[in-house]
Amino acid sequence: MSILKEFKEFAVKGNVIDMTVGIIIGTAFGKIVSSLVNDVVMPPIGLLVGGIDFSKLAVVLKHDPEGKADVLLRYGLFVNTLIDFLIIAFVIFLAIKAINKLKKPAAPAEVTTKECPKCCTSIPLKATKCPNCTSDIQ
């Protein structure tokens, strides 16, 4: 089988297409959540803690004497990313919880056998005599 044919079979399988759609939707969802965190959630949190903009929080590790670019430890961006992660995790939790509520519970399997009271083997539900021990079953 040629490599091109194998690749074609692999690429058009449902799993690959489903995964691709999931990645695209996940990327778009990530942008929405990032905007939610940066534009909606963080400003009120910044006001509550005294007007701090977390994205600008940093510690200068080394000043550049020429004034070009200091070496910074940007812990504020890490705080933003951490809050972003927590919101994404919470939203995914809520979405999965809602999906699980929508799922119907599996119907119990229909009982087609019973147990012989004498030899404890499985026999058809309508049986009146056990085929294994020949006991009469009521």
Largest sheet: 2 strands, antiparallel
Give the number of helices. 3
Mean pLDDT: 83
Oligomer: single chain
CATH architecture of the largest domain: Orthogonal Bundle
Helix content: 40-55%
Helix- and strand-based class?
mainly alpha
Question: CATH topology of the largest domain, anyone?
Answer: Non-ribosomal Peptide Synthetase Peptidyl Carrier Protein, Chain A
As a whole number of angstroms, the C-alpha radius of gyration is 31 Å
Number of domains: 2
Give the gist of this structure:
With 138 residues, the protein is mainly alpha-helical. It has helices at 3-11, 14-48, 75-102, and strands at 59-62, 71-73, 113-115, 122-124.
Topology:
Layout lengths: L2 H9 L2 H35 L10 E4 L8 E3 L1 H28 L10 E3 L6 E3 L14
Antiparallel strand pairs: 1-2, 3-4
Helix pairs in contact: 2-3
Description:
This protein is mainly alpha-helical and 138 residues long. It has helices at residues 3-11, 14-48, 75-102; strands at 59-62, 71-73, 113-115, 122-124. It is elongated, with a radius of gyration of 31 Å. The two termini are 62 Å apart.
Keywords:
138 residues; mainly alpha; Non-ribosomal Peptide Synthetase Peptidyl Carrier Protein, Chain A; 2 domains; two-stranded antiparallel ribbon; 3 helices; 4 strands; 9% strand
